[in-house]
Amino acid sequence: MGEEELHQLINGCVKQDRKSQKMLYKAFYGFSMGICLRYAGNRDEAAEVMNQGFMKVFTHIDRFDTSRPFKAWIGRIMMNVSIDYYRANLKMAYTEDLEKAENVSEGDLTDKNLNYEDLLAMIQQLPQAYRTVFNLFAIDGYSHEEIGEMLNINPGTSKSNLHKARQKLKQMILKAEETANKTNYNRGMDFNPIVAYNGIDVRTTFFNNGIRG
Fold first, then answer.
1. How far is 161 from 97, CA to CA, in rounded Å?
2. Burial of 212 (0-12, 13-18, 19+ CB in 10 A)
3. What are the distances in angstroms from CA 166 to CA 123, 126, 133, 163?
4. C-alpha span between 180 and 175 (Å, rounded)
5. How many CB atoms are closer than 10 A to CB 179?
6. Whole-angstrom distance, CA of residue 6 vs CA of residue 20
7. Record's Pfam families (predicted)?
8. What is the spatial distance between Cα 111 and Cα 95, in angstroms, rounded to a whole number?
9. Does residue 80 sit in helix, strand or coil?
10. Cα 138 from chain centroid?
11. CB-neighbour burial class of residue 64 (10 A; exposed 0-12, middle 13-18, buried 19+)
12. What is the model's pLDDT at position 69?
């Protein structure tokens, strides 16, 4: 979509034109759903959060600064709505483990590299508290201090939950590789092993799929 067409849609949405709202929704559906999927536990939950996000987009679009990228603006709204949803539906209390957390490094997730769909599915299986911190730190690039302010927790708690998220992902990834190896061995077929990755590669994977806000 060209800049001129986008600005026309934005102007139409400011005037609450239903056709413009529908076209903007369709144009940014995939991008917005991708962000919500990372934070949600399943597609239905992601769709619910995304629709709440679009309600905010249409309600506050008159405040959008047209000198700034619209995609970044709508992406930030989708992320914030996802975090709000998390706060409202928190089912798990945060636990602190400062001694372990202080030793957490980016290299602790040097496990295996999956394609986008497999990695997304595994992230969705994480407990909500772990999933939220993992997304904010490893994919969206926020610091533990910033995450603490966003989620009303201290940085040590954020580090601890990131560490636990990585450990759970490591277990899921190793199990997936073991299953794949057995399946291909039993079939007598060649197979491509899953390659090692770190936190930077995770971020690149989602960015390349048009997911990062």
1. 9
2. buried
3. 10, 10, 11, 5
4. 9
5. 10
6. 10
7. Sigma70_r2 (PF04542), Sigma70_r4_2 (PF08281)
8. 24
9. helix
10. 9
11. middle
12. 94
Q: Is 203 exposed, middle or buried (0-12, 13-18, 19+ CB in 10 A)?
A: middle
Range list of H helices, 94-198: 98-102, 116-125, 128-134, 144-151, 155-187
Amino acid at site 144: H
Please give the model's pTM, rounded to 2 decimal places.
Answer: 0.70
pLDDT of residue 179: 78
Q: What is the pLDDT of residues 84-121, one digit of tens each?
A: 988 777 644 444 343 444 444 444 443 444 577 888 88
Note whether 79 and 146 are within 8 A (CB): no
Find out whether 57 and 74 touch, Cβ atoms under 8 Å.
yes
The letter for the amino acid at 182 is K
Q: State how far the Cα of 127 lies from the Cα of 151, in Å rounded to an integer.
A: 15
Length in residues, the chain: 213
